[in-house]
Amino acid sequence: MSIPAFGLGTFRLKDQVVIDVVRNALALGYRAIDTAQIYGNEAEIGQAIADSGVPRSELFITTKIWVDHFAADKLIPSLRDSLAKLRTDHVDLTLIHWPSPKGAVAVSEFMTALAEAKALGLTRQIGVSNFTIDLMRQAIEVVGADQVATNQIELHPYLQNRRVVEFAQAQGIPITSYMTLAYGKVIDDPVIARIAERHQATTAQVVLAWAMQLGHAVIPSSTRRENLASNLKAVDLRLSPADMAELAALERGERLTSPASIAPVWD
User: Fold this and answer.
1) pTM above 0.85, yes or no
2) Quick one: which of 41, 136, 229 has its CA closest to 33?
């Protein structure tokens, strides 16, 4: 993958909480950090990184452009603002966070601006998030599939998003799974618990390992240092074909994130 398989998500983490989480994660060995303009925590993440002493060259930082900044004259200035908050002259990956509500800004407009941001050196890679097959096709028409580093989508055992995954993989576009633990719903799942017991692992480790074994990147988060440390161990967990089949069978189309004001018509 052109992006790290395992990173730290920071959705819903604010103020001193996100500073502490990022500090702990970096101390534990995390090197990929995922944020977004709408999260309202870029400045705090920038502070935590600066305080950590970890060289910028060791880090992979992702941010996402919010829908208010999609217009050609707004996208790059908004990204420069994000860079200032993050205390860096570039991010490693910049995503379009959600499709433009009601198509107010054309895919061609914001993808062209995003490609320009890359050409300017403000971001090393570009990609999309919450894109359907049709929207991915439109993005590919503008910049080419080889320029789309990932499509970051909700993906967990209860929503495996197979149609979108199959299309993306056919185009050579990796998937990043967010909400991989389904807001914690997987933790007490009896099927996953049995798999975890076989491996002397936690249910969270099993699900994170499952997603990575499918070829996806994951960006779990936690406010607890012990959970951050535990989640990281999923990188070394290997599941059997039987384990993977049991997890595949948990699909039930349970989408947990679909804000009415910005969500597309899902595949």
Assistant:
1) yes
2) 41
The answer to whether residues 5 and 212 touch, using CB atoms and an 8 Å cutoff, is yes
pLDDT at 216: 98
Q: 143-161 burial, b if ≥16 CB within 10 A, otherwise e? A: beeebbbbbbbbbbbbbbb
Q: What is the DSSP letter of 221?
A: -
User: Which residues lie below 8 Å from residue 165, measured CB to CB, with a gap of 6+?
Assistant: 155, 175, 214, 216
**186 vs 53, 205, 244, CA distance in Å?**
35, 11, 15
Catalytic residue among 30, 39, 158, 178: 39
Report the alpha-carbon distance of residue 128 to residue 131 in Å, rounded: 7
* Domains of the chain and any CATH numbers: 8-183+215-222 (3.20.20.100)
Is 39 considered catalytic here?
A: yes
Report DSSP letters for 95-122, one per residue. Answer: EE-SPPGGGSS-HHHHHHHHHHHHHTTS
